[in-house]
């Protein structure tokens, strides 16, 4: 039973973390705009997050230290502080987007303007962080997120020519009307959506709090090798849906409410209900993870008591940071800023910031003082180093591409 | 001089490590170290320095660091500099450093107390009221 519960951690990370507002928007938007010419980025990102999360889970299990604690120790307080500011800011953008996503999902059912629902969504998120039994919520949202499987059902219902899909996905080109710059920009967006750093902050902090040890390494592998590919399949289904339904009609995804449209047309009202439920669960789960992550990164850098199992009186500063982040996210959301744009910026900047946390974890996963005999194997190191090179190239290219393409316009 | 000294790579094995009090409560990091020249010519780490002031000092915000440290000592009515913890109080040095002190006595706990008294305890549903 304990094993089953442990896998729930991975499933939540997969559904609420892998598929969050970033994946919903990025996969839908690229499917509608680039057909399947960017589909290759999804498996590439899934492998990246598997490597990154497996290493950080293993490090957390073996030395009981979460990512940001180690970031400061290995990079020093100065570089660590810069890293903290960048990670916290990007995480705050993501939190804003997720809370807006929860509000939009509810507004699709109630036809109340989503901006009015943002404070209510935020209060719900905060109450879970503050006092509700976290493990139960984790499983509830993990299971509810499975409703997104309706996107897979929609693809199957539409009944596309599978050979044609496969050949499109494996022969990517830059479509007419797009430049190599926009193509690269959206590739980075998809990559950042798949490999978001907060997932790893949350995952490794959870592993420390659940007191993982060497005995749990199998569970760590199961979580990342089952959970993340499952998230990847859902992401691809969302992209394929958009490419089959939205692309032929030249519909650009400018709003989150357009994401479930293909499901509505292929599966009908019940399908739409499932899609909305799934979007609600995925964004809500991710809102929980990002709000806790904002507390994790600050508390771990400064050595404060932290954790979702501590009552607020035992980790007061941690909970104050979480609360303050939620309040700031609500204020940003209430300005009426476009949630899709916030999402796009958050995933693109996430991708740019990845080397900052990926590199120290890669070093530590090879250091016997931290992981004893469980250092990276040769093959893993080869692949992980290849990803490090890609991450650095992405980080260098992101800001110039953002300027050249005017944010992907 | 304490003859039980161990040979450690101070910047690798001590600096920026997590501190834990005698009950296992997380209570800050090793923000800086106080070292002393001994007669044998070696350097000995005598104190772990911790707290926002020490961190700011190390981040080359020296004036801010000194001010924060004075402020924290004055707030606590402390005679001695509370940010300095004698290394002999470190009962175990590993991935985290266990100290034979109570977190509540360290300057790193001031913010925690402030957050609890001024924010957390004013919000309902907070769970069990902690001691002190």
What does this structure look like?
The complex is a heterodimer of chains A (409) and B (132). Chain A is mainly α. Chain A has 17 helices and no strands. In chain A, helix 12 (261-267) packs antiparallel against helix 13. Chain A is globular. Chain B has 132 residues and is an alpha+beta fold. Chain B has one domain (10-122): PRC-barrel domain (SH3 type barrels, Roll). In chain B, 27% of the residues lie in helices and 23% in strands. Chain B is built from four helices and seven strands. In chain B, a hairpin with a 5-residue loop joins strand 1 and strand 2 (26-29). In chain B, helix 2 runs antiparallel to helix 3. Chain B is globular. The mean pLDDT of chain B is 83. Chains A and B meet through helix 4 and helix 14 of A and strand 2 and helix 4 of B.
Number of structural domains of chain B: 1
Strand content of chain A: under 5%
Oligomer: heterodimer
Name the chain pair with the biggest interface and residue counts per chain: A-B, 29 and 33 residues
At the first level of CATH, the class of chain A is Mainly Alpha
Q: Can you identify the CATH class of chain B?
A: Mainly Beta
Element string of chain B (H = helix, E = strand): HEEEEHHEEEH
Tertiary shape of chain A: globular
The fold-level CATH name of chain B is SH3 type barrels
How large is the radius of gyration of chain B? 16 Å
Q: Quick one: CATH superfamily of chain A?
A: Amino acid/polyamine transporter I
Strand content of chain B: 15-25%
Distance between the termini of chain B: 36 Å
Cα end-to-end separation of chain A: 49 Å
Structural class of chain A: mainly alpha
Give me the CATH fold name of chain A.
Amino acid/polyamine transporter I
Poorly predicted runs of chain A: none
Count structural domains of chain A: 1
Number of helices of chain A: 17
Summarize this, please?
The complex is a heterodimer of chains A (409) and B (132). By secondary structure, chain A is mostly helical.
